[in-house]
Automatic annotation (TrEMBL):
Highest rank taxon of the organism: Bacteria
Stretches for region Disordered: 167-199
Function: GTPase that plays an essential role in the late steps of ribosome biogenesis.
Subunit composition and interactions: Associates with the 50S ribosomal subunit.
Keywords, comma-separated and alphabetical: GTP-binding, Nucleotide-binding, Repeat, Ribosome biogenesis
Positions contributing to GTP 1 binding: 9-16, 56-60, 119-122
Lineage summary: Bacteria, Pseudomonadati, Pseudomonadota, Alphaproteobacteria, Rhodospirillales
Gene: der
Name of this protein: GTPase Der
Amino acid sequence: MTFTVAIIGRPNVGKSTLFNRLVGRKLAIVHDQPGVTRDRREGRATLMGMEFRVVDTAGFEDDGGDSVEARMRRQTDQAVTAADVALLLIDARAGVTPLDRHFADYLRRLPTPVILVANKCEGKAGAPGLYEAYGLGMGEPVPVSAEHGEGMYELFEALMPHAKAAGALDDEDEDEDDFAPPGDEEAEDAEPDPGRPLTMVIVGRPNVGKSTLGNQLLGQDRLLTGPEAGLTRDAIAVEWEHKGRRLKLVDTAGLRKKAQISDAIEKLSVGNTIESIRMSEVVVLVMDAAAILDKQDLTIARLVVDEGRALVIAINKWDMVDDPQTALKRLRDRLETSLPQAKGVTTVTLSALTGRGVDRLIDAVLETWDTWNRRIPTAGLNRWLEEVIERHPPPALPGGRRYKIRYMTQAKARPPTFVLFATKPDQLPESYIRYLINGLREAFKLPGVPIRLHMRAGKNPYAAKDK
């Protein structure tokens, strides 16, 4: 059993730095500019062996209405309400500000217990602010330095009663010898866990409806949305269940053309999105029905395929298309000529706003994931290889010598990767390699996923050896 800890505070007090420290990885974007975090981000944290869910939130802003700041505030309010305990973070070097006092008063009226944490207490510069924090009337502040990892044991002791109250910690677990120091946790097992969730990353250009689609899939307003382009900055991961199948949805920042990116925060967001693609299993590329598969969409699709991820294309705002048949034909023709590496990629038309077609998207994701994981028996592969070589032999080598293809095996899945043993593998024409890949895709039903075919010199490694 686990419990949930929400990190809250005004902008630029070090919430994302503390979040990264607790989860042990740089998941959240950290920058000196205030207001970088907009959505709430969740992660699995370990502190002295105690495990819990930690939530990074947007900076507390005293704003109302329907502005971006007000929507961010509502996301933070939801995080605090759902948490077992909240960490109110202040900047000890800056001292207690009027905004800190305002939100301390606000949090005192809520049922969620609050631990006051004074960040940036390394050295002597934070001492005056630490003493000033007692005046907030929220008990003894916990002095920490999120950047340098100081005060983590004191934070652990402050969290312990709340973990026990939430039923996440038994009395026998309190022996200090059972807790490892930060950073000493064992690495995750390299073998994939069959019970782990399928990782589905949503990508696309800015303002095509990625977060709206994410909220529709989750069935709640979990992700910050609005008409403003570029609202999402961090890659936000949320786990949920669909018909008994566990999935992890990752909403990402929009990807613009590299030449158009000058803002430092956007550069960090783009890097965050690309890293999410690399760690994904299935990538859903969302396009706007009014501008299907423009140059930037193709650039993103090629990036996904080059990284070996499974790809599904979602055409959003399909309810606004006047001539659906013509639009679909134009899309398929463009994919055929511009993205042959993922021939047969699944395309789903939908409306993220109304939810129409969203169930079909999840079905397509699960089906594409199965294809991406498919393994083909070696015997069947080589029977197919003999047939295609007989039907269309490889071209002769220079001097008229016959080119010999001896054997094929599947080296791995995710994506399907094959090894072909042949004489002089470096001289097999690229056109013939494409012929074999297309044949594999058609014969073994591998549409829409990248296929890797590596050439190796040598005889059949499984043939009986001469004694």
